Inverse folding.
């Protein structure tokens, strides 16, 4: 076990190809199986309309709170490894995908590195991120407001909470 302090991080997950709920569940189980990372909370699943590129199927989205001894870059590598194992193919920005995992928040850190920006630069503009994130961290303050307050200012039309149980991800395929 690492001597590093465990940091609280929040991840955003989504997908709209294949069986996104199964892919997200498998990814969360992979991350939870890592000896330096544990799931602290997982949101419900949400069906959300596509964002950016709108001529594609609806997405399923969720968020997870993890406790990790990894650095932000190591956690990103772990997330990318999970995406790769689940056969994620990166073709077009905001396009259809089997699985997508983003680090939204990592402790109190601000990171600006190639391929890694924390906090996620657009999370406060995206209801599909904030709806599940506000479910598990409603009082978290970002940009001077709680996530719930940020969400209240966004268009949430078409966002539907599908499963109220937070253990949906533990069910093996």
């Amino acid at each position: 076990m690492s001597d590093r302090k465990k940091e609280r991080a929040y991840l955003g997950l989504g997908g709209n190809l294949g069986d996104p709920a199964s892919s997200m569940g498998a990814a969360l189980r992979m991350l939870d199986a890592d000896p330096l990372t544990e799931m602290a909370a997982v949101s419900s699943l949400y069906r959300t309309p596509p964002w950016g590129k709108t001529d594609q199927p609806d997405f399923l989205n969720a968020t997870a709170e993890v406790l990790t001894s990894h650095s932000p870059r190591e956690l990103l590598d772990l997330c990318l490894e999970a995406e790769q194992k689940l056969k994620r193919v990166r073709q077009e920005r905001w396009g259809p995908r089997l699985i997508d995992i983003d680090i939204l928040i990592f402790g109190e850190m601000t990171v600006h590195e190639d391929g890694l920006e924390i906090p996620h630069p657009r999370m406060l503009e995206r209801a599909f991120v904030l709806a599940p994130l506000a479910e598990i961290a409603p009082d978290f303050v970002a940009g001077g407001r709680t996530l719930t307050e940020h969400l209240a200012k966004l268009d949430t039309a078409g966002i539907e909470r599908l499963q109220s149980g937070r253990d949906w991800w533990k069910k093996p395929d």
In short: The mean pLDDT is 90. DSSP finds four helices and ten strands in the chain. The radius of gyration is 15 Å.
